[in-house]
Amino acid sequence: MTDLLKIEGLNTQFHTEAGIVKAVQDVSFSVKKGKTFALVGESGCGKSVTALSVMRLIPDPPGKVVGGRIFLNGSNLLELNEKEMRKVRGNRIAMIFQEPMTSLNPVYTIGDQIVEAIRLHQKKDPESSWREAVEVLRRVGISDPERRVYEYPYQMSGGMRQRVMIAMGISCEPELLIADEPTTALDVTIQAQILDLLDELKERNRMSVLMITHNLGIVAERADDVAVMYASRIAEMADSQTLFMNPLHPYTRGLLESLPKLGEQVDRLAAIPGNVPNPLNFPSGCKFHPRCPICEEDPRCLEIEPLLEEKEPGHYAACWKV
Amino acid sequence: MNNSLTKKSDWGTSYGELVWNEFKKSRLSVACLIFIIFLFIVAVLAPFLANDKPYFIVIEGKTYFPLFRGLKATDYSVFLATFTAIVLLLLIRHNRRTLDPSVRGGVLIKQVGAAAGILLTGIIVIQVLVPHRLDAQDYKSMIASGRAEKAVFAPIPYGYARTDLQSREQPPSPEHWLGTDDVGSDVLCRLIHGSRISLSVGFVAVGISSIIGIIIGAILGYFGGRVDFIGMRIVEIMMAIPTFFLIITIVAFFPRSLFNIMFIIGITSWTGDARFIRAEFFKLRGQDFVLAARSLGLPLRSILFRHMLPNGITPVLVNATFGIAGAIFIEAALSFLGFGVAPPTPSWGQMLSLGVSTTGRFLWWLTLFPGLAIFFTVLSYNLVGEALRDAIDPRLRE
Fold first, then answer.
1. Which residues contact A213 (CB under 8 A, 6 or more apart)?
2. Which residues of A touch B311 (CB under 8 A)?
3. Is residue B40 situated within a structural domain?
4. Is B50:B154 a contact under the CB 8 Å cutoff?
5. Which domain holds residue B351?
6. How do residues A132-167 score in pLDDT, each as one tens digit?
7. Structural domains of chain B, count
8. B374: distance to nearest CA of chain A, Å?
9. Chain A interface includes B224 (CB < 8 A)
10. Model ipTM?
11. CATH code at B164?
12. Which A residues, 114 through 133, put their C-beta within 8 Å of a C-beta on chain B?
């Protein structure tokens, strides 16, 4: 299986008045062709920054990709100039965002917005682009697309808008779709529909998906491979079956234990003690050690940051104790 | 072009229709818009409304048309521009009814291009072909002396450049409805002709300053950082220079022409617009739809002016209404100081300044009527601007 997207040692920083925030540190993973890769973690752990780094859309200043390489089909995206990068965005990598209510421009009809992307990347005339916009809306399951293309975002519900966002994303048949928490803002039934749609489109277009989420349920059901991020680093990475069956890193275990289970009567849900560390002031050594149940004041955990190692074949974890 | 892709009933409402539907909910703003349109009609038809030459006159059995013969190249240019604008508006209306929204954009660009071409060549042809005639005949005395049998005059039968030293500084009377000024010209006539100057100064100056302000503000706001820092210092330097004195200085070096005044007001008053647009773009550039537009690989031009600008243009629109008012005032002040348009060309500000006459009398009709004209024009622009702001803002729509 070939890698479509390969990230090596990605480092992204933000220069703020309070100091340098290392939002992504030494992140490496690869997304295989036609597969779904999930990036899981709490808010602020660097998932979205990783995705924006791939798109080269980190707001600069204050942000900057300071190290690493991002290969798309073998070519390093970080070496492209802005003009070349524009041909990649939307055309080869598309991105959909968390908040469908604000991701569409309120002053244009959805048809206008889809057509603009089609005309830009496929150099088609307005007439056939418009036809294609109707087609792509039909493909994402919007009923009556001939009429809907002329509607404004405010005339649509959240689920519909997310479908429109997906339609814009897939209109140029990208090789990679980055979905940044695509279902967080939607209610549960719509969530399932949107995820089914993404799976279906992935199959049909032979597209890879980089899914960014904090919902472990989605990961278990939909992802082929998973990386768990904690405090700007990858804590554990494996295919999703292995990760859920045999979690190695104490953080992953904590996350899985804190999920409520059906049919089990408990007074309190299990929780990971403490809070996510402040990115301006990370703890020394392993960043998870103040909250870790298995660290037991081990001097290695307190002083040296563990690197991602292959603990079992295809199963990586960054922990001294496993 | 009319092989439509979908049913006409599916087209929905266009952006323009949405804005108009919101706009017309307020009666006051519609009234103000009607007043502004009325002013435009008056300005365009000024030579037909107030003229010392009759529409036609019969002298010894022969009919002459002095008013039409006396029209200047400027008048013909104004008529052509108005005609083109009306045709263009009708075409847009026609497009909306018959063309599919997917092809409207392309058709509109062609139509606007054609209209601009016709207008430009038309104006050049007019300037070349229409001779400058000087017709100093006094047609009224011809009627009085019985040389001419019959004549029909304009409703206000005075010329704006015609002086009449017998009737200087007269208060309003049945002959001169709004009185006369220091050289005996009819105030109403000069008011009507002055509307051309005031309207065009406002529009052209604000047009120039808005375009400069929008482009500079958009770049500063979108890029931020160092670009913004340097750009804002330039804006601040511009703001620190007292604009009015700069204008006076520049005007002193260049010939006194209306175009120079419009241009100078335009290039010195863009700082407000630049700051508004910069602030809006700061807010907008972090929004999801801008990020989404960038993630589609759209070029900078499209992101700045297609996706961000319509969402951030409202303060500039409102500011433009104040700007038009401001430009009218600056023109008035320049005319007052003798740097404005040269007499006998009438402008409201110049008339206002004649209120205190050289003889020391306070001529209230010379202050009141141009003052009211300026007041209502400025008020209408402001109210229309505010209504437009509310109508454009998608957040205020349900």
1. A38, A39, A40, A181, A182, A183, A184, A219
2. 105-107
3. yes
4. yes
5. 15-51+158-396
6. 899 889 888 888 888 888 888 888 888 888 889 888
7. 1
8. 34
9. yes
10. 0.84
11. 1.10.3720.10
12. 115-117, 120-121, 126-127, 129-131
